[in-house]
Automatic annotation (TrEMBL):
It comes from Bos indicus (Zebu). The lineage of its organism: Eukaryota, Metazoa, Chordata, Craniata, Vertebrata. Residues 1-25, 758-771 have a biased composition (Basic and acidic residues). It comes from the Eukaryota. This is Pyridoxal-dependent decarboxylase domain-containing protein 1. Residues 372-478 form the PDXDC1/PDXD2 second domain. The keyword Lyase applies. Belongs to the group II decarboxylase family. The gene is PDXDC1.
Length: 771
């Protein structure tokens, strides 16, 4: 019995264990969604999933490029990542030899190509990571007890990192976060303000800052110089900075796009001085059009222990395999291929710079940097009587109060110009940026984009042609802005909205009767009026573009007027907007009041009809209301009762009798509806002439023959309209006094006269009917 009991308990425990395992599997499978359920997916399904995630829904974006055209050299680079994964599976000895060979070859080639002799290389994915490692190396080199004492050494003598004001945004914050240093350890060196480029570091002011920091007990540690700033591509005076760093024992690090020109045969002296610096960061990936290629930091240091502690060198084979994609790509391109790509990018920038110098109203910000592969330009308008060689203020008038406003206007126009050029010439790789002094500019940096996009010389010529085609639009719009503002401010019911980000002629808002000017919230009634106004303006088929959107500083709707490509009559435009908006507001009020007016009219009509029925009963008598007696009385003495009713005039909002309709068989004239308000400046247009075009009279821009022909056409139209009015007025005057037939005329003459009189009657009665 005990044995059977043990077996029964064992069977119960086994069944309970199986139940718990099944419940656990169900719970686990329910918590893990997607393709992990079951026994796994086959390779075809997994690759199909990756392809769908890469390309997405092609129906939503049919115009987007599916994948970048990377070329054969790009495939070599991508192959390096796959080979690196396979190579990592080798045994340790073979892996060590192979990775050492790859790292040493790549380092040697880069140092020879970019003229950095006896240097070491650190390959990293993040472009700023190399500089962070260099800062660690500088700290270990200057603070000998940093490994033992750590932060206490830095606290006693705080390190200082010097960065240019034109450095990449966020670089100083990144360094402090990576090094664990407080932000006061950063020192921003201003650029030149009087002499030299406004994007170059002020060397004299830097020396003053270094002396002040030394007097305060701080340690000048590292200086970051630019060989091609991130914004406009200017190069600092690296030779002078190197002398200053050697004098005070500061580590000099150089970065920038102009370092790519070190591979060319001719290099400017300012860039060539970078070969004497302590370290530099190169980005060969965008320069050569190689995807997924790491950035490289070249440096010079004799202590391998400090470089190992700083993270610049590593004993792990996986870290050395980072150079494999670049090792394969450099062998595929060869020295000639590398130099050719960098040289082609520099030629593109020089070609664009030489072409833009011949274009009016285009200012180039890198004219003194002949070797810079970056071209930065912007549209501007000179002051009347100013020297074109000076820094012209971008304003069409000389009013000092309008300079700031016109600066914002030019920024908006340059932003529009940059976006238009990016759409028209996508192979150019343009970018729009905002500079502190110059404002919004357009940048062309072929070293960062030409190898990837495949930019050619024809694309540069197309870019220049597009710039020239957009200049008339920009100049015309800028000239009409002030006139538009004055017209809007002088027109009742319109409010000028100053939106610095809108590149068009201007922004206007219609103030209706119930508009709360102090409120910034959404106005439903105003939005309805502006929506109708936008529809009416777009139906005019003019050359202007109209948009509706919220105001710059509130949620109220406004009408945005786009760019002007021709001479526009601003007065007619503003008046059309005011009149049309007023008509829409009146129509909306009429529709809103229609229900109440109709309801009151129906009630009044019922009361009058009931009163008319009572009056009819009194007139006919009581006997006529009895069925049999009334019929007999009506047969002997019928009653001549007129049909009476009521008609409701929606225009006048009043009730009228229908007696005139039943007696004379015509509708009553009632109250004459009010005329639709029209502009006072309405003018005659020639056939085919679009709205808002300035009148051709007095225009000096057209030829004499064409102007005479247009003026004659306008005069004929005015004479014809004036003649019709005169004939109509004369007919009204002759109508009351018809001419009597002569007394002594022969019968034939009387018949002819009568026939002529009959023929003339419709002409005499026609103005009466029209009236």
């Amino acid at each position: 019995m005990g044995k059977n009991l043990k077996e029964a308990m064992k069977m119960l425990e086994d069944s309970q264990r199986r139940t718990e395992e099944e419940n656990g599997k169900k719970l686990l499978s329910g918590d893990i969604p997607g393709p992990l359920q079951g026994s796994g997916q086959d390779m075809v399904s997994i690759l199909q999933l990756v392809q769908n995630l890469m390309h997405g829904d092609e129906d939503e974006q049919p115009q987007s490029t599916r994948i970048q055209n990377i070329g054969e050299q790009g495939h070599i680079s991508l192959l390096g990542h796959s080979l690196g994964a396979y190579i990592s599976t080798l045994d340790k000895e073979k892996l060590r030899k192979l990775t050492t060979r790859i790292l040493s070859d790549t380092t040697l080639w880069l140092c020879r190509i970019f003229r950095y002799e006896n240097g070491c290389a650190y390959f990293h994915e993040e472009e700023r990571e190399g500089l962070a490692k260099i800062c660690r190396l500088a700290i270990h080199s200057r603070y000998e007890d940093f490994v033992v004492d750590g932060f206490n050494v830095l606290y006693n003598r705080k390190p200082v990192l010097y960065l240019s004001a034109a450095a990449r945004p966020g670089l100083g914050q990144y360094l402090c976060n990576q090094l664990g240093l407080p932000f006061p350890c950063l020192c921003r060196v201003p650029c030149n303000t009087v002499f030299g480029s406004q994007h170059q570091m002020d060397v004299a002011f830097l020396e003053k800052l270094i002396k002040d920091d030394i007097e305060r007990g701080k340690l000048p540690l590292l200086l970051v110089a630019n060989a091609g700033t991130a914004a406009v591509g200017h190069t600092d005076k690296i030779g002078r900075l190197k002398e200053l760093c050697e004098q005070y024992g500061i580590w000099l690090h150089v970065e920038g796009v102009n370092l790519a020109t070190l591979a060319l045969g001719y290099v400017s002296s300012s860039v060539l001085a970078a070969t004497k610096c302590d370290s530099m960061t190169l980005t060969p990936g965008p320069w050569l059009g190689l995807p997924a290629v790491p950035a490289v930091t070249l440096y010079k240091h004799d202590d391998p222990a400090l470089t190992l502690v700083s993270g610049l060198t590593s004993n792990k084979p996986a870290d050395k395999l980072r150079a494999l994609p670049l090792w394969l790509s450099l062998q595929y391109l060869g020295l000639d291929g590398i130099v050719e790509r960098i040289k082609h990018a520099c030629q593109l920038s020089q070609r664009l710079q030489e072409s833009l110098k011949k274009v009016n109203h285009i200012k180039i910000l890198v004219e003194d940097e002949l070797s810079s592969p970056v071209v930065v330009f912007r549209f501007f308008q000179e002051l009347p009587g100013s020297d074109p060689g000076l820094n012209a203020i971008p304003a069409p008038s000389a009013a000092a109060s309008a300079v700031g406003r016109e600066r914002h206007s030019c920024d908006a126009l340059n932003r529009w110009l940059g976006e238009q050029l990016k759409q028209l010439v996508p192979m150019s790789g343009l970018t729009v940026m905002d500079l502190e002094v110059e404002g919004t500019c357009v940048r062309f940096s072929p070293l960062m984009t030409a190898a990837v996009l495949g930019t050619r010389g024809e694309d540069v010529d197309q870019l220049v042609a597009c710039v020239q085609s957009k200049l008339p639009v920009l100049t015309c719009t800028l000239q009409l802005r002030e006139e538009f503002k004055q017209e809007v401010e002088a027109t009742a019911g319109l409010l000028y909205v100053d939106d610095p980000n809108w590149p068009g002629i201007g922004v206007v808002r219609y103030e209706h009767a119930n508009d709360d000017k102090s409120s910034l919230k959404l106005d439903p009634e105003g939005e309805k009026i502006h929506a109708g106004l936008l529809k009416k303006l777009n139906e005019l088929e003019s050359d202007l573009t109209f948009k509706m959107g919220p105001e710059y500083k509130s949620m109220k709707s406004c009408i945005y007027i786009g760019m002007a490509s021709d001479d526009i009559d601003i007065s007619e435009l503003v008046e059309t907007i005011a009149v049309t908006a007023r008509e829409i507001e009146e129509d909306s009020r009429l529709l809103e009041n229609m229900t109440e007016v109709v309801r009151k009219g129906i009630q009044e009509a019922q009361v009058q009809l009931q009163k008319a029925n009572e009056e009819r009963l009194l007139e006919e008598g009581v006997l006529r209301q009895i069925p049999v007696v009334g019929s007999v009385l009506n047969w002997f003495s019928p009653v001549q009762a007129s049909q009476k009713g009521r008609t409701f005039n929606l225009t006048a909002g009043s009730l009228e009798s229908t007696e005139h309709t039943y007696v004379y068989k015509v509708q009553g004239s009632g109250v004459t509806p009010p005329q639709t308000p029209t502009g006072t400046r309405t003018k005659q247009r020639l056939p085919g002439q679009k709205p808002f075009k300035r009148s051709l009279r007095g225009s000096d821009a057209i030829s004499e023959t064409s102007s005479v022909g247009h003026i004659e056409d306008l005069e004929k139209m005015e004479q014809s309209s004036g003649g019709q009015e005169a004939s109509e007025a004369n007919s009204h005057e002759r109508h009351p006094e018809a001419p009597a037939p002569p007394e002594a005329e022969p019968p034939g003459a009387l018949q002819d006269g009568a026939q002529g009189l009959q023929d003339d009657r419709p002409q005499v009665e026609e103005p009466e009917s029209l009236r």
